[in-house]
Each structure stands twice: as structure tokens, then as C-alpha cells.
Input
Amino acid sequence: MDTRFDDLFTHPENAIFKVVFYPDRVYHAQYLNATRSPRYRYNVQEVRSQADITLLKGQVFMDGLPYSNFLRIEYRAGRLVELARERGRFLRGELLAWLRLHPDTPDAVEATVKLRHCRWIDAYQVELWQTLEAPANNHHDLQVLDLMGADGDITHVAAFDAALADIKALRRVEIACRENDRDLPFGYAINEPEWDNNYLRSHQVPNVPQPNSDQNTVADQNYLIDFQRGWYLQSDEVEPVRYENALMNPDNPERSPGNLVEMRWMLQRELGGTLVFFHEVTIPPGKVEGTHRHIGTEELYYIVSGAGIAYLGEGDDPKIAHLPLVERDIFGLGPRPCREVPVRPGSIIYTKSGGIHGIRNPGTQPLKFVSVLYHSS
Output
């Protein structure tokens, strides 16, 4: 690690905020498999996390010399624990992970690998090394050798050789985790293993201009770990996806032909942590986005232009109890009391899990806001 890192970390502004350098400090110090022997050292070049999954990529040094590139997977299995319990099962010491690696070439490669639970980090993990062969006239340390091999904590997947050969060029990794094929130590088969595939994840793409088209929804059913370091985006260069009568029940009296809202999906799968999307929404004059409830997610609206009326569920924000109380048709739930809230540039509508919100534009100018949504767990 660059020694200048420690100097920067002690600066007062970083000691106060602890947001710029703190995460890298943790990742470089955490337990990695071969560090049980002082002969091995890691150069962790990139770390990315999404929900319960953390991926690290970089180099392994052996006896002070570059030895192998590696990709490490850590999975904390909170979602999979929930799914397995619905089946009356516990997670045991082994899980499986499906991986698709996207190097800086047109060809992606995929394989399924085994994850083993590690008590040091309280997570399931595996390290994929470019090679397990000891250098010529050398040998592996016995403390590390017992971790190596097929389905071991340190393993080699031939299909990934090319993708790991240039570790900096490994741009993206798709991953989904599932229960093992067998319940260990009992050994009986798990015929319908549960998957953690990011809540059946999909993303939106402006393939066609027709509103509510299935062609604009791409089913992913996995997590995407993106190693790109930065993005520059211009919202007006992104084509919108159009939705007619978005988030409205069939009998909602506000439904009407041409009640269109536009969403420019700026960032979706690129985001890390528990973030789901960042998009820009335009509600034309006289149009409405249906009032709806969030369960298991949180969403924030920030109004950037125009003016309109937002709706929050009665009691969701006690400070607005003086505002008009109206009845709104809640998507999937039917009529519910809501508070009517005026919004303008700079207004924020923040809705946590269980909360209700919606918005309409009664004015003569487009109402625009940006929205961030994330899982609340």
C-alpha cells in the first residue's frame, strides 16, 4: 500500500468525515486466505460490494515476487438465509455461486464455484487464482497448500484463465448464489435449491418508444459487480422509457389514455451497496404518477424543476399533519388517507419501507425530479 495513505488518513478533515479513505483501510486489512503464511501477500487493486456480496481483485505475491492474479468472493447470505428458512432449511457450511466474468473483450465466460463458510469473516468465500502451480524450483507453504484444490477455499477454474490473465481488464462480474446441492453433513439432496438472484432483478432500457412495453424490461436475475471507477452522464442524451398510468389500479379514476410519465434511467446495475436505481422522472402538465407503497425499499424524490402536488401516507411524516387530508387510490391496496404536499424545486420527498407516496402535475410546465431507490435491509 502507498505509504502516503496513512498521512492522508490522519488529516483532520478525514478524521472527521471518515468517508474518503476509511473503506480501503478495512479491505486491505481484512482476512484473506493465504495470509495464514507470511510467504504470501496480496495487492488488492479493487473492491466492490453489492448487498451481501463483496468482490476483491488483484495480485498475490509469493516470497516477494508476483505469483498470480486473483478474484475473491465474499457472500454474507442474509437473503438466502431467509429463502432457505421458508423451505424449512438451514444454510450449512457450503453454498454455490454462479459467475459470469466480463473481461475487456467481447467474450464473457461463466462457471459455478463452491463457497465455504469462513468464521474469520462470518461469510461464505472463495478465492479464484489464475494458477495454483508452484513456481519452478519452489513449493507452496503447507499452511496454504491445504486450502488449495478443486472446490477449496483457494481454487482454479480453467474457464477463467483468460479473464484473470489481465486482472485490470476484468470489468464486470455477474453473480447469483444458491443453496448447495446437498444438505451437509446429513447428505440428502436439495432438489429445488433457493437462489439469491437479487430479488429477480431486472433493469429498464429504452428499446422501443411504446409505453409499458415488455421490450423495455431486461430480466437479469443476478447481481452485477462493476469495476469501472467513474461515469460521466448527460440526462438529455438518455432516451426515456415511457409508462402509461404508472402505478395505478385498473379502476383508479385518474387513469386515462395518454397519462404518460417519462423516466430516464441513468444508473441502475452500475450502482453498489443496496442501491437499485437513480433516474430522472418527467411528469408533463396534467399527468399523474400513481400513489403507491414501498415495502422493503426506500425512495427519495428531489424536485429539480416545475411545481406540483405530492402525496404522503397519513401519519408518515407527523410534521405535515396541518396539510390537507385527501383520499388516494393506492396501487394494489385501494383507497387510503394521504396528506397533500406542495412541491417545487428543492423539495424532497423521502419514503421509507411501509411508507406511501405519489405525485401529480396540475400546472402548465413539466414537473421534473430525480429519484434514488434502494433496498432497506
About this structure: Residues 229-375 form a domain with the Jelly Rolls fold (CATH 2.60.120.10). DSSP finds six helices and 25 strands in the chain. The longest helix spans residues 78-86.
